[in-house]
Amino acid sequence: MSEPRRRSRAPAAAAEPTATPFESIALLLQGGGALGAYQAGVYEALHEHGIEPTWIAGISIGAINSAIIAGNPPERRVARLRDFWEMASAPTAHWSGWLPSLLHTGMVRGVINQLAAGGVLMNGVPGFFSPRFPPPPLQPNGTPDAISWYDTSALKPTLERLVDFDRINDRTMRFSVGAVNVRTGNFAYFDNATDTIRPEHIMASGALPPAFPPVEVDGEYFWDGGMVSNTPLDWVLSARSDLDTLIFQVDLWSAHGVLPRDMAGVGVRMKEVQYSSRTRAATDEFRERQKLRAAFQKLLSQLPADLAATEEAKLLAAASDPAVYNIVQLIYHSPTYEGESKDYEFSRQTMEDHWRTGYDNARHTLAQPEVLTLPAEPSGVGVYDFTHEAAEHQVPAKSEKDNL
């Protein structure tokens, strides 16, 4: 896997005080297309709880949600998220008005979802993307129209309407989005600690081929960051701040799943494995690294002055980290009726379902006292997952700690 682009970075804006014992709160939003309404629901619950991020980072649809949150004052963020998702969710007949007794059965709901997804393939999503006519095979080679099925130019005015980019670039909140350089294949982060963020940076993070065209940023072309890594977790964990940090990792694809029973199930499981981005492995690796850093810190405090002054001791001191971390995962688990098209099924009913599920999951998670408590683990890292999959609907279940 290509490493993210590393640049000399100006000091980030100082973290604002939070409504928790933690000095910094990071909100990390994964890519997943239409599933991104789940993230909006999570943010609404966090906002109601008085928890506002000091750093927000996203990939693909997570980049769009991140920009809307960072680019608006706290009191307007939920409304702006609602504006985007109501615009993007295709207007369809109100499902509760027809087939009411069958609406929530898996077979009927699955058929309805597939029909809605087919409508998106044919017509696109308002304010987001539209199909190219004529299609790419009939376009001149070497043009953007020849290398993508959809035109995303409508997304730029949407972002300009919903996002105050001056606010993002004022750096009142740290902001990062990831993309992949088409020419080099390297992963890159656009970060307001070093970059002046524009709509093109957000569009680049969500330019998933071959559906969407690459987006030019400062003379280079970029595709969706999810092609390399669908979560900004590594980027945030690698940027040491020495601040006690609470991380909400909002994942739209579950690494856990079942053996497929048919080819449709294979398609679903392939996406889940590809886009879940090995979050568990990254978290476990970070916890082990922090355990070593905590040991360095304790050992250094016991060294006599002459040993503490050695180059080796100084090297250990630079590698140690006095901060503690809680990593709280909120993972969307798809109902059985959602098929391979779930990331481009933008119907209004499904959007509302995703939003409500994120909201409910976040409220359930925040009700667990350990989430907002500084960890006592020897590593200084607490890892929590309080979301579980239930038959056809995601509902809060009993908690699961450190089972990632």
What does the model show?
The chain is of the alpha/beta class. Helix content is 37%, strand content 14%. It contains 13 helices and 12 strands. Residues 5-15, 93-102 and 389-404 have low confidence and may be disordered.
What does the secondary structure layout of this molecule look like, with pairings?
Blueprint (H helix, E strand, L loop, with lengths): L23 E6 L7 H12 L6 E5 L1 H10 L3 H15 L17 H18 L6 E2 L18 E2 L3 H8 L2 H5 L4 E8 L5 E5 L7 H7 L9 E3 L2 E5 L8 H6 L6 E7 L11 H13 L3 H22 L4 H4 L2 H9 L5 E7 L16 H19 L14 E5 L14 E2 L3
Parallel strand pairs: 1-2, 1-9, 2-5, 9-10, 10-11
Antiparallel strand pairs: 3-4, 5-6, 5-8, 7-8, 11-12
Helix pairs in contact: 1-3, 1-13, 2-3, 10-12
